[in-house]
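Hey team,

Filing this mostly as a record. A colleague (T.K.) asked me to run one chain through the structure pipeline before their review meeting, and I want the input and output archived in the tracker in case anyone asks later how it was produced. No errors, nothing strange. Just documentation.

Input sequence:
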Amino acid sequence: MANPFDTWSLDREIVLVKVLNHRRDKVFVAWMDPGALAEWYGPAGLKIESYEADIREGGLWRFDMVGLFEGKEQRFPNLMRFLEIVPNERIVMDYGTPDPNDPDRFRATVTFDEQADGKTVLTMRQLHPTRQRRQVVIGFGAVEYGLQTLDGLAAWLDG
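Output structure:
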């Protein structure tokens, strides 16, 4: 079976974009600092509990997103494997659960493009393993949650 991440396909892609009022080196550092990342990352109303944060090419970040749903705490285990890091330009990662055989794992590419006015255009591209999986994650709110995450980054940078 071919690796679904060997080719990019628009019917498996989700793209999120945010213009941030900060230079790209500052925005990039917010992704590279494990303490900072745990403060701003994730949808509104969820907190991050990090277990391992080795944020470098070849490293990984293992964490739970934790929130209250219907009065009960729920945990969502996550694992990012950092495949490529080009300072101030690009981060490429595999993203899924800690299960090494996670069939829903996706590839994420984050790019940092600085505008002439010093603002940064952050683009996050997700490539899902199948068109059907892309539809599932859109259905449960991944686009809205992703935009909330980028809003959290903006608020953290502004703070």
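Quick notes for T.K.: Residues 42 and 82 are 17 Å apart (CA to CA). The longest strand covers residues 72-86.
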